[in-house]
């Protein structure tokens, strides 16, 4: 993916999967690449249409939740780019879990009944629904791994003040409820997800992408209870299948480990899974669109001129 230089550009940052351009210290242009990461490592080969899938799901979901809280997005001039307001980010990710899965299950299975200050009741099996969703925040690391942190620690360490944190909590639970409702209409269960927030002046904004396969885990609702009753794995739509493949091939991002070879067939499988999730979550046929770097740049510049 090309690196652009837009008019009035004041900063450029290349993240794990997106390139972020700051314009006039006021706006952000985010270009979603086809890069894929797992265990905080960028895998060696891109996944066709992944950037478009993530960008378009995020735009759809931000539009579908704008009555709950203000968000950063202003426009999506190309299938894989978004322009929005530059916020001062809170240095926490608001992770919210409706089911005992992933990191929460690994913690629970080790015998612990508390995660980030949230209590997990006894007697649950992997992928069971919690009685009510729990928030398990993590610190937003500049480099390396994000770390679990409790609400009490966040406030005590001055990462977020108590008043703002109460708003973040409220928004997080309302957004998750809306996400679950949207998923349910499509025959899915939103198992867990995360939200990022920032501020402009005194106003708190929802930032970044929401309810995408990179930030969320979805289970298929059909057969969910039967699979739970039999102790079977849940059928899910998320990036977890990529992580599982890496683990099966002895890679978890640890020192000395090598990323396994990604065959063209496997890359095609990953791409098709992302497209499947788009169609399932949005309820519309995915329309792949490929623009040249020149066309992408022209459309973004034209959109910036409208601000």
List keywords for this structure.
D-amino Acid Aminotransferase, Chain A, domain 1, five-stranded antiparallel beta sheet, 307 residues, nine-stranded antiparallel beta sheet, alpha+beta
Describe this structure in words.
With 307 residues, this protein is α+β, with helices and mostly antiparallel strands. It has a domain at 91-199 and 208-237: ATP-grasp fold, B domain (D-amino Acid Aminotransferase, Chain A, domain 1, 2-Layer Sandwich). The chain is built from 8 helices and 18 strands. The chain has helices at 50-64, 103-109, 151-156, 162-185, 224-230, 240-248, 264-282, 293-305; strands at residues 9-14, 18-23, 27-32, 37-38, 41-42, 73-78, 81-85, 88-89, 92-99, 114-115, 118-119, 129-135, 138-139, 147-148, 188-200, 203-207, 216-220, 236-237. The strands form 4 sheets. Strands 8, 9, 12, 13, 14, 15, 16, 17 and 18 form a 9-stranded antiparallel β-sheet that branches. Strand 10 (114-115) and strand 11 (118-119) form a beta hairpin. The protein is globular, with a radius of gyration of 19 Å. The relative contact order is 0.17. The model has no long low-confidence stretch (mean pLDDT 94).
Q: What is the CATH superfamily label of the domain at 91-199 and 208-237? A: ATP-grasp fold, B domain
Quaternary state reads single chain
- Known CATH architecture of the domain at 91-199 and 208-237: 2-Layer Sandwich
User: What is the number of beta strands?
Assistant: 18
- Secondary-structure-based class equals alpha+beta
Proportion of strand residues: 25-35%
């Amino acid at each position: 993916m090309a690196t652009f230089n837009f008019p009035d550009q004041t900063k450029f940052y290349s993240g794990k999967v997106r390139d972020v351009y700051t314009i006039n210290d006021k706006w952000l242009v985010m270009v979603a690449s086809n890069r894929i990461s797992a265990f905080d490592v960028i895998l060696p080969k891109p996944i066709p249409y992944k950037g478009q899938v993530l960008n378009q799901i995020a735009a759809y979901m931000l539009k579908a939740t704008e009555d709950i809280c203000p968000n950063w997005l202003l426009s999506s001039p190309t299938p894989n780019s978004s322009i929005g307001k530059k916020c001062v980010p809170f240095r926490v990710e608001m992770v919210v879990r409706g089911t005992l899965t992933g990191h929460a299950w690994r913690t629970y299975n080790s015998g612990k009944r508390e995660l980030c200050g949230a209590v997990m009741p006894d007697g649950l099996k992997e992928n069971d629904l919690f009685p009510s969703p729990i928030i398990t925040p993590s610190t937003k690391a500049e480099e390396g791994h994000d770390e679990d942190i409790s609400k009490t620690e966040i406030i005590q360490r001055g990462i977020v003040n108590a008043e703002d944190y109460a708003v973040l909590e409220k928004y997080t639970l309302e957004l998750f409820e809306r996400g679950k409702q949207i998923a349910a209409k499509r025959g899915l269960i939103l198992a867990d997800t995360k939200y990022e927030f920032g501020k402009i002046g005194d106003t708190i904004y929802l930032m970044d992408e929401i309810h995408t396969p990179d930030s969320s885990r979805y289970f298929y609702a059909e057969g969910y209870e039967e699979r739970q009753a039999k102790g079977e794995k849940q059928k899910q739509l998320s990036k977890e299948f990529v992580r599982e493949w890496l683990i099966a091939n002895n890679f978890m991002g640890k020192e000395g480990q090598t990323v396994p070879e990604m065959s063209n067939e496997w890359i095609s499988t990953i791409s098709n899974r992302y497209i499947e999730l788009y169609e399932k979550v949005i309820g519309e046929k995915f329309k792949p669109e490929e623009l040249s770097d020149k066309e992408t740049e022209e459309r973004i510049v034209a959109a910036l001129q409208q601000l």
